[in-house]
Amino acid sequence: MIKVGIVGATGYTGAELLRILCNHPQVEVVTITSRGDAGLPVAELYPGLRGRVGLAFVEPSVEALAACDVVFFATPHCVAMESVPELLAAGKVVIDLSADFRIKDAALWEKWYGHAHTAQEALKQAVYALPEVNREAIRTAQLIACPGCYPTAVQLGFMPLLEAGVIDPANLVANAASGVSGAGRQAKVANLFTEVHDSYKAYGVPGHRHLPEIEQGLNGMSKQPVSLTFVPHLVPMIRGIHATLYATLTDDNADVQALFEQRYANEAFVDVLPKGSHPETRSVKGINTCRLAVHRPQGRNTVVVLSVIDNLTKGAAGQAVQAMNIRFGLDETTGLLQAALMP
Amino acid sequence: MIKVGIVGATGYTGAELLRILCNHPQVEVVTITSRGDAGLPVAELYPGLRGRVGLAFVEPSVEALAACDVVFFATPHCVAMESVPELLAAGKVVIDLSADFRIKDAALWEKWYGHAHTAQEALKQAVYALPEVNREAIRTAQLIACPGCYPTAVQLGFMPLLEAGVIDPANLVANAASGVSGAGRQAKVANLFTEVHDSYKAYGVPGHRHLPEIEQGLNGMSKQPVSLTFVPHLVPMIRGIHATLYATLTDDNADVQALFEQRYANEAFVDVLPKGSHPETRSVKGINTCRLAVHRPQGRNTVVVLSVIDNLTKGAAGQAVQAMNIRFGLDETTGLLQAALMP
Amino acid sequence: MIKVGIVGATGYTGAELLRILCNHPQVEVVTITSRGDAGLPVAELYPGLRGRVGLAFVEPSVEALAACDVVFFATPHCVAMESVPELLAAGKVVIDLSADFRIKDAALWEKWYGHAHTAQEALKQAVYALPEVNREAIRTAQLIACPGCYPTAVQLGFMPLLEAGVIDPANLVANAASGVSGAGRQAKVANLFTEVHDSYKAYGVPGHRHLPEIEQGLNGMSKQPVSLTFVPHLVPMIRGIHATLYATLTDDNADVQALFEQRYANEAFVDVLPKGSHPETRSVKGINTCRLAVHRPQGRNTVVVLSVIDNLTKGAAGQAVQAMNIRFGLDETTGLLQAALMP
Amino acid sequence: MIKVGIVGATGYTGAELLRILCNHPQVEVVTITSRGDAGLPVAELYPGLRGRVGLAFVEPSVEALAACDVVFFATPHCVAMESVPELLAAGKVVIDLSADFRIKDAALWEKWYGHAHTAQEALKQAVYALPEVNREAIRTAQLIACPGCYPTAVQLGFMPLLEAGVIDPANLVANAASGVSGAGRQAKVANLFTEVHDSYKAYGVPGHRHLPEIEQGLNGMSKQPVSLTFVPHLVPMIRGIHATLYATLTDDNADVQALFEQRYANEAFVDVLPKGSHPETRSVKGINTCRLAVHRPQGRNTVVVLSVIDNLTKGAAGQAVQAMNIRFGLDETTGLLQAALMP
What we know:
Low-confidence stretches of chain A: none
Strand order of the largest sheet of chain A: 8-9-7-10-13-12-11
Number of strands of chain A: 13
CATH superfamily of the largest domain in chain A: Dihydrodipicolinate Reductase, domain 2
Number of domains of chain A: 2
Number of helices of chain A: 11
Oligomer: homotetramer
Distance between the termini of chain A: 34 Å
CATH topology of the largest domain in chain A: Dihydrodipicolinate Reductase, domain 2
Structural class of chain A: alpha/beta
CATH class of the largest domain in chain A: Alpha Beta
Radius of gyration of chain A: 20 Å
Largest sheet of chain A: 7 strands, mixed
Mean pLDDT of chain A: 97
Shape of chain A: globular
Order of helices and strands of chain A: EHEHEHEHHEHEHEHEHEEHEEEH
């Protein structure tokens, strides 16, 4: 059994991690830390875990995590970077769900996140854990940086086209929409039910922190530099990300459906839908799958990709467990093969 | 492996059964029938099952179900009663999720359902499968009648009080609320998103078919005859039932919290919350648990019980699998121990 | 034109008051105060008011309100009581939407609200402004205390039965459900979209502050003392209250439908539905109407009343404007005759 | 008073028309027709209109509409074209909310709608009633064709940029999202609450009937031919359209904010938000306003426009009343100046 510690499990990605791990056959969660809620039984905060998770939160410390084989960080940014170097030094595998180690260029990170990056040595060895891109590097990584939710949906959607070189990378559009759980569990007026329900809006149009992360990933897939316009929207639903991607086709003969099917033929968690499909976010509710469809409307030269994930699962905790499975030599799908909760 | 057939899996209880069974370690689903959708891959109707359920619907017939050990009916009422006698004669175990075999008094059934009951011999041997009441009878039953969703929530909520004889059974109120999936997957204007969303209403106040089923069950728990006022409501959510139960306490010294804790001490799927709690339906989303809380507001003589279940799981498909586990000698919780999808 | 000031319009009842008053033909809103947001244009906080309300918030003070004929308080409890005596002394009519002047017994108020009542002289002259009960007193009142949202729905539902003396007042049940706007616009985790959406729960079962207010009102309608069990629930919708009321009929021959129709024959804002109806909260979305239906399920001796209002309109701001119309000698319906927003 | 007849008021646009007109000070609705529901009181179908609309549906016929000055069609496509020529011959003004007279090229209409166009003479005189474009023509039109909901939001969003010639018209993207009321009131499984709630999806990517209508409108604003990629999405909300528009800026010095403010300076129902804004659909719930914001993310050469309307109001019934006001010489805003229902 892999012994797991979780830092910061009071947020939604932490809760999702517990939901998944409490049914994982090869894992024992031994420590869950929280600075604010030490002493509180986890199931009191998340009644859905009553009878499934018996632990209480403990004060965070490297000692508390000593017995673990792997430590997950489900914290806001700037928290993991404080403790990770010490845990790495102690020989732990660290899987960070926060943004601290996603962007390789520390200066770029600092510009977008507005803080100094205090763990730049660790950053150098971090592996960006989109398994469909970096599976081999994950197998031996000590510090695993899980992608953001939007970046997962957008990168998986553009990848077959960029790798094949059949679209113009200089003029990409990602129009994305997220459920409200993406905003976390902070008490803010803007996220009240009464402010969000039965309404829809764009946000962060001038600039969203996932933009540099996505462009970094897309540049890795493209021979020419990528320029992306990224507009996120807020949907009155709890979970789910839907990315609608637009690109100009440069090869009029490209069989885009075939490109997607071939690229993901061996991927357990990427599902390319039949031609003409429209994936719904509910079709991945609670599961680690990304479902994709590709269209070429009216036979014109704009290709449209539809990409859906559950932001808390494939977009966060599920993908983190997928990385753990890879890292510890388990079958990649262990504990991750439920069917979506639908309806 | 138990070989399972499902009749009528195009509705929501059928889909939920598949969601649960595709992860059940001791089950193989071998046949799924549908009169209207024969030939259609199941996952095309329910994209959440893509990659998890590979079968297509077949025409319903006793022959098609010959290879099964157990046949689930997830059909509207009046369907199971047509085929069940033949399946029983063929030695199959039948688990019926519909209303056909829930009410022991055929005349009462006919009054409420408006049809002749054409399988009254089978009805006599049917076991009403609320495991917390009838566990022993389920172990050897050939025909298992699963309780309705409201009846499950209401009976589990009143049971400790009625069995202990501390309330007046002649004056019970069950004010219940259900998510919209309880109305099924029929194309009706009344169940359109635009008709239901952001609104709330009572329905069926003059009389709801679950009333006689609930009164039958409560009478089995009570020394004196029961009279219940049952008012269901429609909540703009997909899953979940919340029953708020009112009764007049006849024993001023009764420790109602203790009565609940003792009655359910050994029940894996009934969770009595600490004093003062208010269970939320989301705390059981997708799982087979009933969570209960009991109150005595202002120390007056009215006792209030709060009871929540997922109508598709403990209120239908999950409870059916629980019954199957009991009937086939498995651990009762096999395949049913996920944590709720929350948030 | 009646000159109106509003104190505390940053909350939802204040916003609703502005939505109604900006279309009221006899009113000019001249001052809107807010301690926290002085200087902010109102329409910046509530973009739905852009182009309709041009004022900015000002610091609250009696001077700022000097030009007004009437001052509305849309504040949390304990705010109005601080300023009201001074405004009364200045000759202003005050309409208080908060709880400060609803309960006549100051000691009872202090027990439930946990604060000393600092304006008990004013309290003595306050008129409880349920127009269907107190219309005449409102015409000359200087201090008008608007009923709470639940109390409005529950009192209008029980009134015809209590006044006629055909039910047992010692054993009443009010099972009520509210949209989330009833919880106000405070930043609390419990009211986040992600905590409330797609779920349902009871709350405040041990005791809710509207209980003493409702019992006070019901006692005014009944010859014998009233005892009420009141259980509120939270519905994942923005607006609306639905009260489901249960009482034991003591007169088997009472024609309850006729009692309701007669009692409300001349009330512009109470709509008694035809026999057998189930009012939906959306049928009163944004309007000042209470819709009622009365049932006697199965012909037994329990009578069930269904009562719906919009908690922000008839349950708060609309009813306050109705009281203002009465107080200033206008047609009671002025500015209040829109149709519900449906769908 | 203008005497109004409505054909086909059982759908949502018809109900919205009634909601608006029952408070319009210069209008009397004298006839409401419905083939299927003749005899039924309108308020029985739409309880939100109880006490506001006293009429019952009558069988549709030209005679029934004889007393009207203006006839609104709120019907599915292919209905208006059957009766309109006769009504025009009878001297009535006709305002059609359906698609029958929106597209000037009958062959193009027939291709997208799959029916023969049987009123091509009438089509020639139809005025496309986007008041911000065609106000003068509306003043004297006898046949007024109201724009579709998506076309209204998209055209108002692109107009200032296309008219100024500062974007490349050959490569436009309109990523739009609609509330479910846009799908109408038909009983379809796909629009059930349980199929739509808590989920999000694109639809009609291969081709949506609003594409040719939008391109026709945009071509009228542009010197060079327009090519648009249009992808609609379904949002789990009742009302509202949000269009996110993308275009490549061809004039690096264009002050896009100023272009919007100047173009709409005198428009009562178009609200250009301050720089940096993100309009929410709820800010126009139930009102006839379009709110717009324009961005140039990261200072790159892609301009992003955000455009919100209520699909039933500015996207249908409200805009139709606006056109009626213009046509009958009333103040354009008569009956249309409510504030949005928010929260």
